[in-house]
Amino acid sequence: MPELPEVTALVADLGARLAGRVVDRLDVVSFAALKTFDPPASALSGQTVQGVSRHGKFLDFEIGSLHLLVHLARAGWLRWRDGPPPPPSGRPGKGPLAARLVLDDGSGFDVTEAGTKKSLALYVVRDPAEVPGVARLGPDPLEPEFTEEVFAGILAAAGRAQIKGVLRNQSLIAGIGNAYSDEILHAAHMSPFKPAAMTPAEVSVLYTALNDTLRGAIARADGLAASELKAEKKSGLQVHGRTGQPCPVCGDTVRQVTYADSSLQYCPTCQTGGKPLADRVLSRLLK
Ligand SMILES: [Zn+2]
Fold it and tell me: From ligand 1's centre to the CA of 275, what distance in Å?
């Protein structure tokens, strides 16, 4: 799933391409993806793009006095198109194409979603706060308001909840998902199962790891034409998606814990005192 660093890269890239351009139309190919009906997608036609920004993992295209919000979900991406779109092929809504923004010269971008489980979401609204997922977002880690004190307060309030879930809870902190929560905890040398309420010294370590991890990922994506890539590209990951491979820090084997619809990765030596965590799915099967 594209997370804060990848969405930030898309915002920078698309903002430069789109600002001041006139929208010809938004073609919605997957009707299930469009979550709003008033104003209609046709209201974007003839309007000028004012800018592109981000709320957590949501992209926000300000078009005229309206906003087109895109949540890329698990397997969505947004790809720049230099010329007019080819005529649609196949059955609408069955392929990866969810929607297509067409500018007055035919260029624009395609919103696609891989796989069969479709959860990508589009919204045409007057105010981004009309989107429930945006309205309930917690503070954004890149904003100056996200101080160590604010972070400490979030962790203290979460109490015994496991830190892994707290980091990726969008209403507590905006923009961090499964991949970067794994990376942040690895950088902080903390177990994903550690309770969120921790000592001030631990909060400090985790706060630094969070900032370094996200800002490092953004720096690596800088200058990359994100919308020209075929799919999201995460580079420099230490543990996430690297089960069975050596930890780049200590050489131990990266392990995972699997859940019904996701998994987390960690390094036992770096994060859990060398002790493997119980893999819930596996231990349930072995019972
Ligand atoms: Zn390690």
Answer: 12
